[in-house]
Amino acid sequence: MDPFVIGVVGGLVLLLTYCFYFVGKVQDLERELRQEFPEAKIHISFFNNAFLLIDFASSQLVIGPRKPGERAVVPFSDIIKAEVIQDGAQIAKTNRGSQAVGVAVGAITLGGVGALIGGLSGSSTTRSGTKKLSLRVTIDSTSEPVHDIVFFESGSAGGTQSADGLLKDQSKQLAKFAGYLEAAIRRAEEGRASAPVVSLPLQDKS
């Protein structure tokens, strides 16, 4: 058999073996996370070593690399902002913010899933293609405050056109999780606004 053909076949076998191994590791991680957070929204990136878990039952966010010792577990109240990043540029964001009474300001909105996906298929994207699409989450932490979860990364130097099926699917998935984060931030803000004020009796110093 031609050595070139043997090399190609061998390379394909190695690639398939790695893909099956990687998918198996991702499934193992999801099963592990589901045991602790059975109702959580989970996204595990196939493009970088990161995952995002949003658990409305416990009002907690779990984020970080797939290695257990390096994960951050934070309450919704510690989420500072979430940004949608396309090729290094911010195209949408949700900020933690409050008015005098502690209610989330009206500006913290991603404009909805439809608006986000529509923005990704705009004229500039259509001309140049999308190279990378990420969700950036900033948390209240002094050690590692910024976390990027990559939802899509193109294998083409010129990027991937908006009509591509994988890009469309991952754009919808990103928009969904951006919406979950917006809801988590809003829930934390509403919790601050409705928190009872505890008045302690003054001590008689006489």
Describe the structure in brief.
This protein is α+β, with helices and mostly antiparallel strands and 206 residues long.
How would you describe the overall organization of this protein?
Helix 2 runs antiparallel to helix 4. The chain is of the alpha+beta class. The strands form two sheets. A four-stranded antiparallel β-sheet has the order 1-2-3-4, with helices on both faces. Strands 6-5-7-8 form a four-stranded antiparallel β-sheet, covered by helices on one side. Helix content is 38%, strand content 24%. Strand 7 and strand 8 form a beta hairpin. About 12% of the residues have low confidence.
Unreliable spans: 98-114, 120-126
Biggest β-sheet description: 4 strands, antiparallel
- Beginning-to-end CA distance, first to last residue: 102 Å
* Structural class by sheet pairing and helices: alpha+beta
Query: How many runs of DSSP E, i.e. beta strands?
Result: 8
Q: Kindly report the average pLDDT value.
A: 74
Outline, from the CA principal axes?
A: globular
Radius of gyration: 21 Å
Task: Please give the share of residues in helix.
Answer: 25-40%
The total count of helices amounts to 4
**Which series of helices and strands comes N to C?**
HEEEEEEHHEEH
- Assess the beta-strand content as a share of residues: 15-25%
Strand order of the largest sheet: 1-2-3-4
